Every structure is written in C-alpha cells, then in structure tokens.
Amino acid sequence: MPLIEPFRISSGTASLRRILLLETTDTDGVTAWSECVAGERPYYSPETIDTAWLAIQQWIGPSVLGVPIPGLDAIQPSLDASVRGHRMAKAAVEMGMWGLAAEREQVSLASLVGGRRSQIATGISIGIQETPQRLVEKVRAALQEGYRKAKIKVQPGADLTYLEAVREELGQDAPLMADANSAYTTADFDHLTQFDRFDLMMIEQPLAWDDLVRHANLQRRLTTPLCLDESITDVDRADDMLTLGSGRIVNIKPGRVGGLSTACAIHNRCASAGVPVWCGGMLESGIGRAYNVALASLPNFVLPGDISPSARYWQRDIVSPEWTMDTAGMVTVPHDRPGIGVTVDRDYVDSLTVRSETLTAD
Ligand code: OSB
Ligand code: MG
Prior knowledge:
- By secondary structure, the protein is of the alpha/beta class.
- Helix content is about 35%, strand content about 15%.
- The protein starts with a strand and ends in a 10-residue tail after the last helix.
- The model has no long low-confidence stretch (mean pLDDT about 95).
- The protein binds 2-succinylbenzoate (OSB) and magnesium ion.
- Magnesium ion binds near residues 181 and 280.
C-alpha cells in the first residue's frame, strides 16, 4: 500500500508498505483478520516482513494449527516455549486468535481485552522534514485538525533547531514530544540535556533499540521523562525498566511485544507502578489499527496514542468503515460492533496481494 507521503525517521524512510495480513479460520469456519507490523527492512527491530512470513509458515503456524487453545493468554507462552524472538510474527498469529474469539463470542475486541474507554485521544507522528519551517507547518496543521499530541521525529542534525522553531511558533503549551528511534549514543548525553529546555511531554527511545542501562543513566540527567518503545519487548523488559529507572513512560505496541496478552500484562505492570502508557503505531492498515484501538481502551492508556485515522496514511484503507478522528482528536472505540469492529474489503485486498499461502492443520 502506497503511503500518502513518505515517512522518514532516523532509521530509514518508508514510502510503500508491504503488509503481511493473516486470515485465521477455526474449525467452524469463523474467520478473523490480523496484521503483522514488521517493516520491509530490519531498521526498527531485527524482524522484517519476510522473516515473519518464514517464521509463521515454518514454526508458528504449525504449532497452533489444529491445537486446542486453553485460553487466549496461553497462546504466547506456548509459542515462546519453543520459538525464540520473532515477536511480530507471533503477535500477528496471537492477535488473529483474539480477533477470532471476539468474532465467535460476538463481542467487541475492546471488551474482550477488558477495555472500557469509549474514545481514544489521538496523537500524530510526524517524520523528519526538509526544514524546520516545513515541520512547523505540519505540526500547526495537525494540532488545528484536532490531534492531542504531536510526536516529532528527530536525529542528530535535525533536532534542536527543529524543536526550537516549533516551540517558538506554536507556543509553550503545544503538546509536543520527540522520538529518536535510537539515533543517539552515550556520547550525546550533554547534547540530549539541551532537549530539557523545550518542555517536551517525553523523549522516546533516544538510545539503542535494546538498551535499558544507558537509558537509566540518561534519565537521571534529564528532567524530561524518557519513554521507551523499541527496548520494551516483553513483561520482563518492562519490569527491568521500572527497576532501573530507564524511563517514566511506556509506548506499548502489541506487535512489538508478541501480542495482546503481553501488551495487557505490560499495561497492568505499569499501572501498578504508576507509570503512564500510550499506544504506539507502526503505520498499520485499518486491520492493525483495530487491535491498537481495542488495546488503548484499557484504563492506563492515559496519554494520546499514535492512532491516526486511515486518511493520514492511506488514499484508501482496506477496511470499512475507515478509521476516523473527530475535531477534538478522538477516535471512537467500536464497542457496538462484534469482532475487530471493521469489515475487510476483500476485493481490494485481493487486488493488492502479491503472494498468498494457506497453512492448514494436518
Ligand atoms: O517509533 O513509533 C515509532 C512508525 C514505524 C516504525 C516506528 C515508529 C513509527 C511511528 C508511526 O512513529 C506511528 C504511527 O503509526 O502513526
Ligand atoms: Mg518510537
């Protein structure tokens, strides 16, 4: 699916998304769609869409097909017991089974997850722009459209002057944060302390994608809260972050942590520790977005999520209704619709499909 505009972050640019979709069917013929959030290249995490395809086909698919599931929370532990890593591939499968359960029971995915919120406050994630002025215009337009938070992608050379320009023109109260996608190192600590003067809501993942210790050292030197994204891959990593003080906020993405049950467990851990969370995004189609919206309806998702409406990324989404945001920056949780809450436009998906494969229980 072609993105409406290229999305540039410190670790690479995306202009066209190759998306892996799963359609999971049970023995009664009930089906549900889910999405794998892996990128085309291993620039965010080691996984890619192609490693996910292989992992699902070779190991993950065969270990769930035809096997009775004792409960939704049991899927991921059973996958983790054998297959190391491949969390995004596991998540696509695990989430499909949540979607399927919601469909079977004719309840909304949000209520199956335990979410009560009826609307989700939405933030926008804005890629690295050619000039600070271009960024100012983007942020201004987004806040005018209703977005409750603007996340500005940064990297060395496109940080302080950009943030300075946005603060100067949009004022001290504009809800801003920065996301570095691991663009900095311990050599940049002095530089990073200069971010404090912009009064950001948080700085997301400034250091290495799998680091916790250095983030803790950096957090001690900053007044701005750090938020971790890439580094929080499971419940233990979230516990480690809390123990070490590696950050004060967590961006939860179900795809990154292996599925919805771990996403919920991390949410609960953070809630007990008084650490706020919000739901991140991975440039998903309307299918992946459905799972994010359901997750974000849990109570400790207290900060605006990267849950942009379909039209932010796609000329035409593959679901109906498309995801929309109102002028107050809120996305409505489809509690009144069973399953994932949207219908997949199968003809459109077929027309975009370049490869498909069916795995069956033997
Ligand atoms: O770091 O949150 C990130 C997109 C791809 C990979 C990593 C990230 C992102 C985003 C986009 O920030 C969030 C969205 O889907 O709106
Ligand atoms: Mg991020």
